[in-house]
């Protein structure tokens, strides 16, 4: 707010309420503020905008919760859930539960909570925020890595292993939406969750909703994967600001608007591991390949103008296994529930490394092969000199 000829002027008066979530505290507070001002003293200045791929903006949280709850009918739906208890022994198995979805919330997480509360208290899964912020409830639902709290029950049955009906007849429509979305944006933002899922028609064959843990991870219990290796790799990139010079006492480390914009599409990652566990390279090399999520976070700090260890970070990542196991198949960008583009971040990081060190995968692989050959020759006591 600032002073004007007719009194206080609210700079947020013309923000479009339709772009705010229906039940948002922000919207309620803005209505309270603007209603206390006279019409003559209110003028337009700016609009409140959420990130383009924000689940809040697309309505996956507040708006769809309201609409789905009001439209819910008395439908019994079967959920086929992965069960495994190491304390009891036995092999992992799938167990079915039937739930009246009109008696719970609209999201898959709501159904899981209802099943745990009413039918089977031993069912185990992670959850926390219920709003797509923490990433705790990441799991594979009908063949798609996603967050249970952002996956509507009414939009399940889209898995490729069920041969879903796809508009246009092939996966090309979905990939076309991704390419179009990436080309249309200046910064790295993948398609929103809704944009991707809109290319899949609901499968009404009555099959149960299959829920399993994130793939190719050790399972601790039921739907709880072991993320120890994932977070160890995240720690290895040193995800904090590093400086060679200390700022003056009492002063901040400033950043321009342009430099700050370079972090858009990177800092929003919630480390849910949906992208990494959808990547075949990560399935095959989980101990050596860092995976899309960790690599995107590495690029987040490489792109930060306040960090002074950029070259050191690039050198650490410049490895045939850590970085170059990525083959750009885009599984990570498709599965990201926040609509981010890890594949794009990795592509830009490879380009940055090539510019910085004058090397690429071919040169790096040849160098690694020569180094390994020399090590083997030394171990076998073979004279490698002609």
User: What percentage of amino acids are in beta strands?
Assistant: 5-15%
Main sheet attributes: strand count, strand direction, barrel closure: 5 strands, mixed
Text of the CATH class of the largest domain:
Mainly Alpha
Distance between the termini: 79 Å
Mean pLDDT, all residues: 76
Function: Iron-sulfur protein (IP) subunit of succinate dehydrogenase (SDH) that is involved in complex II of the mitochondrial electron transport chain and is responsible for transferring electrons from succinate to ubiquinone (coenzyme Q).
GO biological process, one term: respiratory electron transport chain
Protein name: Succinate dehydrogenase [ubiquinone] iron-sulfur subunit, mitochondrial
Membrane topology: Peripheral membrane protein
Descriptive overview:
It is a peripheral membrane protein. This is Succinate dehydrogenase [ubiquinone] iron-sulfur subunit, mitochondrial. The structure is a single chain. The chain is an alpha+beta fold and 386 residues long. The protein folds into three domains: 2-49, no CATH class; 62-165 and 200-212, Ubiquitin-like (UB roll), CATH 3.10.20; 227-244 and 257-367, Alpha-helical ferredoxin (Fumarate Reductase Iron-sulfur Protein, Chain B, domain 2). It contains 14 helices and nine strands. The chain has helices spanning 25-35, 55-58, 62-71, 108-118, 172-183, 193-197, 228-236, 257-261, 280-284, 292-302, 310-317, 331-335, 342-357, 361-379; strands at residues 2-4, 7-9, 76-83, 93-100, 138-141, 144-147, 209-212, 219-221, 224-225. The strands form three sheets. A five-stranded mixed β-sheet has the order 4-3-7-5-6, covered by helices on one side. Strands 1-2 form a two-stranded antiparallel ribbon. A two-stranded antiparallel sheet has the order 8-9. The longest helix is centred in the last third of the chain and has 19 residues, at 361-379. The chain is globular, with a radius of gyration of 25 Å. The termini are far apart. Residues 1-50, 55-66, 68-73, 158-179, 181-191 and 195-204 have low confidence and may be disordered.
């Amino acid at each position: 707010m600032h002073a004007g000829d007719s009194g206080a002027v609210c700079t947020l008066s013309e923000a479009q309420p339709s772009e705010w979530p229906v039940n948002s505290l922000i919207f309620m507070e803005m209505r309270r503020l603007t209603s206390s001002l006279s019409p003559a003293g209110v003028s337009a200045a700016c609009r409140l905008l959420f990130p383009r791929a924000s689940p809040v903006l697309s309505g996956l949280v507040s708006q769809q919760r309201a609409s789905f709850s009001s439209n819910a009918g008395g439908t019994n739906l079967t959920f086929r859930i992965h069960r495994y208890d190491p304390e009891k022994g036995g092999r992992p198995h799938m167990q079915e539960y039937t739930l009246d979805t009109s008696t719970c919330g609209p999201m898959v997480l709501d159904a899981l909570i209802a099943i745990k509360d009413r039918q089977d208290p031993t069912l185990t899964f992670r959850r926390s925020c219920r709003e797509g912020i923490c990433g705790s409830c990441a799991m594979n639902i009908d063949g798609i890595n996603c967050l249970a709290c952002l996956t509507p029950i009414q939009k399940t049955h889209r898995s490729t292993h069920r041969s879903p009906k796809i508009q246009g007849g092939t996966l090309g429509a979905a990939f076309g939406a991704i390419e179009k979305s990436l080309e249309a944006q200046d910064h790295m933002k993948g398609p929103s969750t809704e944009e991707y899922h809109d290319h899949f028609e609901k499968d009404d064959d009555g099959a149960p909703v299959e829920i399993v843990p994130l793939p190719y991870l050790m399972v601790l219990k039921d739907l709880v994967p072991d993320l120890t290796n994932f977070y160890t790799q995240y720690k290895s990139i040193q995800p904090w600001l590093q400086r060679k010079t200390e700022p003056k006492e009492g002063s901040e480390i400033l950043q321009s608007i342009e430099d700050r914009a370079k972090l858009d599409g990177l800092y929003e990652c919630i480390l849910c591991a949906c992208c990494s566990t959808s990547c075949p390279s990560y399935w095959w090399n989980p101990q050596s390949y860092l995976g899309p999520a960790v690599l995107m976070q590495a690029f987040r700090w490489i792109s930060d103008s306040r960090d002074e260890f950029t070259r050191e970070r690039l050198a650490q990542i410049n490895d045939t296994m850590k970085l170059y196991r990525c083959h750009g198949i885009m599984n990570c960008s498709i599965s990201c529930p926040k609509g981010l583009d890890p594949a794009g971040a990795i592509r830009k990081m490879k380009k940055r490394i090539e510019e910085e060190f004058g090397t690429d995968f071919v040169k790096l692989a040849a160098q690694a092969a020569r180094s390994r050959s020399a090590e083997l020759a030394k171990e076998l006591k073979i004279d490698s000199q002609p």
